[in-house]
Amino acid sequence: MKKVHVIGAGLAGCEAANLLANRGYEVDLYEQKPQKYSPAHKSESFAELVCSNSFKASRLESAAGMMKEEMRRLGSICLDVAEQCKVPAGGALAVNRDEFSLGVTKRILANKNIEIVREEFTELDDSVPTIVATGPLTDGKLAEDLSRLTGTESLYFYDAAAPIVLADSLDYSKLFCQSRYDRGGDDYWNAPFDKAGYEEFWNQLVSAEGAELHSFEVDQPVYEGCMPIEKLAKRGIDAARYGPMKPVGLRNPMTGHRPWAAVQLRKEDAEGTMFNLVGFQTNLKFGEQKRVFTMIPGLEHAEFVRYGVMHRNSFLNAPKVLDDTLRIKGTDQIYIAGQLSGVEGYMESAAFGISAARFLSSRLEGREPAMLPPETMLGSLLRYLSSENKDFQPMGANMGILPPIGEIKDKKERYAAYANRGLLALEEFLKKESV
Length: 435
Ligand SMILES: Cc1cc2nc3c(=O)[nH]c(=O)nc-3n(C[C@H](O)[C@H](O)[C@H](O)COP(=O)(O)OP(=O)(O)OC[C@H]3O[C@@H](n4cnc5c(N)ncnc54)[C@H](O)[C@@H]3O)c2cc1C
Fold this sequence. Notes:
The protein is α/β, with parallel strands linked by helices. It has 2 domains: 3-159 and 312-434, FAD/NAD(P)-binding domain, CATH 3.50.50.60; 164-307, Elongation Factor Tu (Ef-tu), domain 3 (Beta Barrel), CATH 2.40.30. 32% of the residues lie in helices and 16% in strands. The chain contains 12 helices and 16 strands. A hairpin with a 4-residue loop joins β4 (86-87) and β5 (92-95). It binds flavin-adenine dinucleotide. Flavin-adenine dinucleotide (FAD) binds at residues 7-13, 30-33, 38, 40-41, 50-52, 120-121, 133-138, 142, 214, 338-340, 345-346, 349.
């Protein structure tokens, strides 16, 4: 039986170990707990949920629900256990945290093809097929080794991300498309403020409520260029206007003048289905981001596919250092799974444990891995991670990364159409795979 290593018994590692063991591989699953705990992990059990107990929306016509249905069909152990210990949470799938992680632990321990190695893994060896799933708090010698393999500038330890909004939720009658000094083509849309609008926005920005930081994040040094927009704004009413909201080099065609201030929106993907609020990395609570940032002209009805965050998060610059099968470029058999690979969220991390294991096992069976169709949420997330992106930030499931489906005005109907299209594509894919 072929031996494989899975490093980290979190959500991604458990999924990967389970899939590989069920396909007949002898899995050594390395877990550093209880010898060593990250600042957020507290229990000896596997698949520990370090914060919320929610796996987000269940309904199929939502991005999280669609992804969960795909995971179910791909044999997810986390989802199976989650269904068994779910607690009432309206439209979301939420679990009893301890029961969930004990349930996954029991299933992993009962699998006779999985050997648990309770030690910190420190050095990668390309002669052994390996999946690294050590999560967003990866550190120490293993982080150094990952930097050695991928280049120091490709492993990030801090996430300073700006919100991303869906392109088709913006009011373009209030925006204008222009790059500063007309350099850079049509990559940017601008949301212009007049003086009164800017002052009102500034007032709300500086008084909005921030998210709570974990103790290990409080004194994290932040580069000047990554400063939260609300913190910068507190330096004075004009600070943001001289920073990311500067109007220089812009002329609003609707007035013929330079705006008082402007927020620039930059395409987040090649298709232009999502926009990033340039320079708006923030630590505000998600509800506050929605309240304050929808004051920006043109964003009144903006749909946020990702809110801004500032937190400790180790992740790789996936488009640069991973190939489209989550394997580190330049290695033969070292794969990355979970949050470390550049996705964000419990279920996304688990799903990327499944994906990495599927890619690895295909290669071990002598086949080039087949790519999940782009119509599936997982296929689209994988594509996102391997598409060129010079400002790469981790991404979670959202409808904005799927190939557009045409004009369906009603959002619920549109999302249902996305989900049905994705599941049909997945069914076809799995049918072909099984012959
Ligand atoms: C403080 C914090 C709060 C979060 N809150 C949420 C939330 O509310 N909702 C949400 O969806 N996501 C949240 N996330 C993101 C969440 O961590 C991930 O979505 C998910 O847990 C990542 O899964 P993973 O399997 O990639 O890593 P993890 O679940 O972190 O698992 C990694 C495992 O690897 C082990 N390990 C690490 N290094 C080594 C080593 N060198 N050798 C052996 N074992 C090792 C760890 O002990 C751990 O068991 C949060 C993250 C953090 C840091």
